[in-house]
Design goal:
45% of the residues lie in helices and 13% in strands. The chain is built from 16 helices and 12 strands. Bound molecules: (2S)-2-hydroxyoctanoic acid (HOC).
């Protein structure tokens, strides 16, 4: 079955077969009418590649350096929440796969293994993604902990001061932890393989958050987390303080406008991730790929510009790099393989992406990433 997965859609299908419906919809879903979610993937088809030939491409070097981190491949596993809900190996599988392929991976403040454990598993550069909580002490504590662990890059998500309108989650009542109430029992019966693994491995934990938050034995929905815990009064001054405190590579995820990109440079960030949160927050917002050239032209010589959203093919990565991105983040691209098959699934997906990039570079006449340029692209 895993051997039948040759692309994103195959892994998505396999994940859908394996996961309880509410969990599949949580990963797969976007906000409102999911216009931005769809546009993310479609945006890559608005331009075509223009290859060169006869350039001597027997050796391909696809390594990049981003925010001071050397990556063997020009993409990394973006931090995503709640991974042990999708497969009992969760972040452990992703950290190991990223280490095997020499790329960076992220642990979320809503991750289901601890930063310390992730560090022990993988020597690959580690990103710690966090949100700006109302509890400023919690924000400081999260940064201190990351410093102690030796996290390479701090990544503050700035597009989520309130929750996107995720109607699929409203319909399914998605909340954590997964409960064995009547609805939970029905899911258990429908997806026994998932349920046996989930309930026979250690209980569901959020090691970055648990000591700070008392859920009182209840459940937490996405909208409750965003509304009750995150601070909508956050400003650039707050972020500037954090960048100073961290005094290392600091990155803002969820930047989309030129004005904000320039502010990020001013306050000393090392990178920005152009992102609309996988279409899960502000529906109708532009695809990061569509906005990339404008941002690279404005700040690309002073800050590392990264993008994510809709990346499903090696050629998508090559198009983003040709426009000037330093690297590309993947999310659902590794989450569906994780849900489908754990670590072997993630490794297969990373390998497929690596092979697609290598093949694409050869066919485009580029032996290193530095040779990609806008000359290789034409917009329709
Ligand atoms: C119950 C809390 O970034 C997402 C994540 C954040 C999830 C918070 C869930 O789904 O967009």
């Amino acid at each position: 079955r895993l051997n039948d997965c040759h692309n994103f859609s195959d892994f998505r299908r396999m994940a859908r077969q394996r996961l309880p419906g509410p969990i599949f919809d949580y990963i797969d879903g976007g906000a409102d009418d999911e216009v931005t979610y769809r546009r993310n993937a479609e945006s890559f088809d608005t331009c075509d590649l223009v290859p060169n030939v006869l350039r001597g491409v027997s050796e391909i070097d696809m390594s990049v350096t981003v925010m001071g981190q050397k990556l063997a491949m020009p993409f990394y596993c973006s931090p995503t929440a709640l991974q042990r809900l999708f497969h009992h190996q969760g972040e452990r599988a992703v950290a190991k796969a990223a280490a095997k392929y020499g790329t960076m991976f992220g642990v979320s403040s809503l991750g289901t293994i601890s930063l310390e454990e992730a560090r022990g598993i993988s020597a690959s550069p580690q990103v710690y993604q966090f949100y700006f909580h109302r509890d400023r002490g919690l924000n400081r504590a999260m940064m201190q902990r990351a410093k102690q662990v030796g996290v390479e890059v701090m990544m503050l998500t700035v597009d989520s001061i309130t929750g996107g309108n995720r109607e699929r989650d409203k319909r399914t009542g998605f909340a954590i932890p997964f409960k064995l109430n009547l609805a939970g029992m029905a899911q258990f019966a429908l997806k026994p393989a998932w349920a046996i693994n989930y309930f026979t491995h250690e209980g569901f934990k959020l090691p970055q958050l648990d000591e700070h938050v008392d859920m009182g034995g209840g459940t937490m929905s996405i909208s409750r987390y965003f509304t009750e815990m995150l601070d909508p009064s956050m400003t650039w001054d707050d972020v500037a303080d954090m960048v100073r405190q961290w005094s290392g590579p600091f990155c803002l995820k969820g930047i989309m406008s030129v004005e904000d990109a320039k502010r990020a440079v001013e306050i000393g960030c090392s990178g920005i991730v152009l992102s609309n949160h996988g279409g899960r927050q502000l529906d109708g917002s532009r695809a990061a790929f569509d906005q990339l050239a404008e941002i690279v032209d404005a700040v690309g010589d002073r800050i590392d510009v990264i993008m994510d959203g809709g990346v499903q093919r090696g050629t998508h990565v090559l198009k983003a790099l040709s426009l000037g991105a330093k690297a590309v983040g993947i999310g659902r691209y590794y989450l569906f393989p994780l849900a489908a098959a754990g670590q072997p699934g993630v490794e297969r997906a990373l390998e497929q992406m690596r092979v697609e990039i290598e093949r694409g570079m050869k066919l485009m006449g580029c032996s290193s990433i530095g040779q990609l340029s806008r000359e290789n692209l034409r917009f329709r």
